[in-house]
Amino acid sequence: MSLNDSDFQILQDIVGKDRCSRKPEELLCYAYDATAQVYLPDAVIFPQDVREVSAILALADKNGFFVIPRGAGSGLTGGSLPVRGGVVLVMNRMNQIVAIDKANLIAHVEPGVITAQFHRAVEKEGLFYPPDPASSEFSTLGGNLAECAGGPRAVKYGVTRDYVLGLEVVLPSGQIIRTGVQTAKGVVGYDLTRLIVGSEGTLGVITQMTLRLLPLPESIRTMTAMFDRMETAAQTVSAIIGQGIIPRTIEFMDNACLRCVEAHLGIGLPVESDAMLLIETDGTSGETEISLKKIERLCRSQGAAVNIAKTPQERAKLWQARKAVSPALFRYGPHKINEDIVVPRSRIPDMVKKIKSLKEESGLFIAAFGHAGDGNIHFTIMLDKRNPVQMKKAEEVVDKLFDETIALGGTISGEHGIGITKLPYLSKEIGCVETELMKKIKAVFDPHGILNPGKIFCL
After folding, report:
1. Can you give the residue range of the structural domain that contains 336?
2. pLDDT digits (tens, 9 = 90+) for 39-55
3. 43, 59, 174, 403: least surrounded by Cβ within 10 Å?
4. Model confidence over 347-398: pLDDT tens digits?
5. Domain count, the chain
6. Are 137 and 247 in contact, with CB atoms under 8 Å apart?
7. Between the CA of residue 262 and those of 117, 184, 266, what are the distances in Å?
């Protein structure tokens, strides 16, 4: 369902010629995302209010061309790629923080707001929005909701869906609906809000959201623990949670990540260590110190070398190292396969052993890092995708990894979604009956199949 000249003219009439284009150079800018795969759209369009979004979708639904919603294009599974052509609906001009309501601990926000900018805005008001994906400095809130993003603080505070109270959404028909509430409680009808969050732009286009906020924690303390064995680090994570301590974050990096980041930044990371845990506690000053000391004692009892950040600058330096992992890994290869599996916390040691064996069996460069506190492991293979031997090995490794993940009671995607890259593996986790039910839900929302086709299911 490609875009014809007549429909393109109507789209330009809706938003203006300056916000709707099919110039090749502009199409190319919106033809890829963080997967580095390229699919050229027929046109790109930049709406700036809900009425324009409604008119665009109504036209697409009537005349039969595809529409693909897009935030910042930072997705890692191809969720915003125009795999069947169509019009890319770029939402970054709808970027207003409409209101921050301190009395009710909520905010009304448009989808194009950059996540980190929202963090800073609410923190100026003494408030806190916990979801913090690694891409927060450039990803948008709309994209975060579409993928149900997580981040390091999910171990204590949960993921994006836990902070979405209500939505304004444009359906593929062009109808505008409002879901959810602005209150702490609400159980009237089906929970359409939670259905739409994480649906990867396949059910509707989010044009405004009501987000839940928390009071800003009084104190944050940060420490690192260096281990001689990755398995010991994994066991320590389970032990921390097992003692009833819930830190703000427990991040981990294996030796490959440590060496890569140190070569990239030169900040003095101990590259002889097999693994690092980056741990934070927060709360009142008293709570934070008590938790930090308990964790420090536990880590030292496991033979770890512990360092506690003494200043905000030292804390920022440690987080710079953690957030540099993904880009720094390109030192080891021109292409990346990045999977975000999750296993129960108690099974992290088992998964660490499996990753080690897969690395030895395949001979591929494999690194592991991520959110150990909630069992979310970013399993990364660096390779040259033009090498068929490497690609075949990598595909076999990913297949084995997913099988082991499911066997351990886990999930094949914790925060990246399914998109197109994980579509072939969906049946490993979701049964036939459940998949058919999801397809029926998609058909109710989008009977003509015009919105973000080819994602999650092969429809």
Report:
1. 218-417
2. 999 999 999 999 999 99
3. 403
4. 999 999 999 999 999 999 999 999 999 999 999 999 999 999 999 999 999 9
5. 2
6. no
7. 28, 45, 5
